[in-house]
């Protein structure tokens, strides 16, 4: 074999080995390139799985937090007990003719109804009597009945609670009349849910007046009855005990009239709520804001001299 032939064979062998090495490198590159997507897919799946898990967990946490943050039993506004009585009777009709004849014998038909912007919440009526005995003088009587009803209100509380507060104030006012002498007060049983009688003497230029104020509460209504009497122009002063007894009986009759006007039969006639007013649950009236603010204290009217109006009567 010639030297030239051997050189060509060696060259071919060298070229063949180079092709083999290139082929091996290419295969390794292809295998590596194929493995990269597999790794990326696996990593992507792993990432998505974690993301989903985190999202689910986050969603659960969020839901849990949202559920925990919201108060399923949110504090409801306090329930106010409905007022037992929704209306008032006519103030000039709460006393019978028989009772008026005893208290104001010459003034049964002298009823004067007080002004009111809401007759279902406040009402009043007054009577005056002047029995002229000629040279012996005259007997004077003055009677006033005031009714005030309270509605239940979320801001002020139940009608009954408001009535209790006003009742206490009325009693206090009756005890604190200026220039009153020999003042005394005592609780009165059998009249509404609670009642108090306040009595005192009041000296005026016309004569010595005997004043009786009976304040009674029946459920969410306060009844204030003022009754006074005097002997004028030389006539003897009336017996205070008789006046007190008459005033107390009239107050009892007035509280009964309040209950009856609201369809409650008190049975015993005491005007209390035990006979059924406490078990009624009518819807609250619309006049709560008005009934809670009485324009004036009825007991203060008693301190004024009623003889002016009486002198006009014959």
UniProtKB/TrEMBL annotation:
Residues 279-314 have a biased composition (Low complexity). It comes from the Bacteria. The lineage of its organism: Bacteria, Bacillati, Actinomycetota, Actinomycetes, Kitasatosporales. Residues 10-20 have a biased composition (Basic and acidic residues). Residues 1-21, 46-77, 253-314 are annotated as: Disordered. This is DUF3558 domain-containing protein. Residues 266-278 have a biased composition (Gly residues).
């Amino acid at each position: 074999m010639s030297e030239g032939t051997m050189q060509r064979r060696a060259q071919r062998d060298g070229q063949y080995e180079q092709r083999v090495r290139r082929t091996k490198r290419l295969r390794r590159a292809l295998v590596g390139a194929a493995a990269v997507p597999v790794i990326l897919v696996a990593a992507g799946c792993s990432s998505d799985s974690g993301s989903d898990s985190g999202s689910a967990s986050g969603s659960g946490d969020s839901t849990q937090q949202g559920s925990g943050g919201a108060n399923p039993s949110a504090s409801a506004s306090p329930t106010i007990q409905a007022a037992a009585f929704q209306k008032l009777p006519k103030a000039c009709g709460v006393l019978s003719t028989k009772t008026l004849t005893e208290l104001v014998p010459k003034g049964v038909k002298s009823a004067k109804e007080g002004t009111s912007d809401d007759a279902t919440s406040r009402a009043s009526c007054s009577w005056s009597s002047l029995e002229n005995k000629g040279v012996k003088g005259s007997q004077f009587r003055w009677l006033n009945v005031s009714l005030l009803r309270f509605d239940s209100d979320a801001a002020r509380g139940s009608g009954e609670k408001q009535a209790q507060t006003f009742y206490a104030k009325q009693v206090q006012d009756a005890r604190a009349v200026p220039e009153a002498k020999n003042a005394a007060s005592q609780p009165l049983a059998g009249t509404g849910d609670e009642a108090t009688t306040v009595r005192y003497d009041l000296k005026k230029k016309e004569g010595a007046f005997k004043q009786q104020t009976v304040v009674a509460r029946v459920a969410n209504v306060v009844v204030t009855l003022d009754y006074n009497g005097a002997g004028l122009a030389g006539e003897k002063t009336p017996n205070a005990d008789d006046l007190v007894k008459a005033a107390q009986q009239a107050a009892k009759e007035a509280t009964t009239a309040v209950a009856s006007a609201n369809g409650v039969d008190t049975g015993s006639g005491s005007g209390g709520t035990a006979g059924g007013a406490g078990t009624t649950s009518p819807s609250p009236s619309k006049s709560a804001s008005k009934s809670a603010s009485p324009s004036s204290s009825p007991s203060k009217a008693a301190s004024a001299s009623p003889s002016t109006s009486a002198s006009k009567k014959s």
